[in-house]
Each structure stands twice: as C-alpha cells, then as structure tokens.
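Q: HIT family protein, please. Structure only.
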Amino acid sequence: MSPSCPLCHPTAEENRAILWEDALCRVIRVEDPLYPGFCRLIWKNHVAELTDLSPDQRSHCLKVLCAVETALRQLMDPDKINLASLGNMVPHLHWHIIPRRRSDPHFPNSIWGPQTQTEAQPPRAPDDAALGAAIRQALEA
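A: Structure for HIT family protein:
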C-alpha cells in the first residue's frame, strides 16, 4: 500500500459500487453518464505494471478482466469493449473496461480523445447486482 495512492484506499471509492472482489483485486463501477457499464478492475497490492505480478497473479488478473468483459457483453450487447491499462496519472495497476457503441460521443476514438459526435441517448447501465452476478458466473465458467 502506498499512503498517497488513491487506488490503494477503497474508501476513496465510497460513491462507486464494488461489483466483485477477492483477496487480490476488485471490480468497481465507474459512474459516467456517457459510458454506462464502465468498470474498473483494481489490483489491491500497489504495483505499477502487469509484469510486476507473478505468472499466477497475471493469470488471475486476466481471468477477472475477461469475466468483466464477458458479463458486460452479455448484459449490454455493446458494439465493442475497450480495455485500457494506462496508469500515467495513477501508477497503480488497474484496467478500464468500457462498453462502447458506434453512437457514443467519442466513437471511434478513445473516450479520452476528442469528441466526434453527439449521442442521442446513452443505453442504460446494467443493475449492479446483475453485473456482479454475471461477473461471478463468468469466473465460474
């Protein structure tokens, strides 16, 4: 844990729903009205890169990442899922899992890129309980 790292302290995420967690990582919902279903996978130990993990830990991280993607695809039927692990602002291993639609404001660019169009109405985000259950189901599959 790093005392100055916001991702080391889940209390900083009070307004975000924890959808799923285990001893190694947690998956939270990111509230973004333009991108419903946006989730973040956060590794609990303070490491900066995927290669800082042991092979078994990397495998676990990628298994959870794929389970979140699977759950979002099942519940939202997006046109694309974007996966991003940046860490430039917060050098703590985390992944952004973002359901995308061709009609979203930034498509085909990154959600952090220039806005290219206006979306009439974003889709509804899945219910937190349903998304958490779908993540657990995908992990068991």
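A: Brief note, in case it's useful. The chain has two helices and five strands.
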